[in-house]
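Human:
Take a look at this sequence-structure pair and walk me through the tokens.
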Amino acid sequence: VLTAGVKSIWLRWNANTEADLSHYEIRQGNATFTPNAATPATYTVTANNYLVPDIGYATRRWFAVRAVDT
């Protein structure tokens, strides 16, 4: 849960070191929904971190990150 004054959050995870890494998919859920493999990606990134903007105050969010090969 984010506290007052915080509107974004940094996600960071261990980098995938496999040579065939293409990108990461980040899935986002909320207080009533936990993301899983069937959830469409909310964000697609190539780095092992992401700044999630404009989450809102006192909002519960769940995140799942998946490495995607080429």
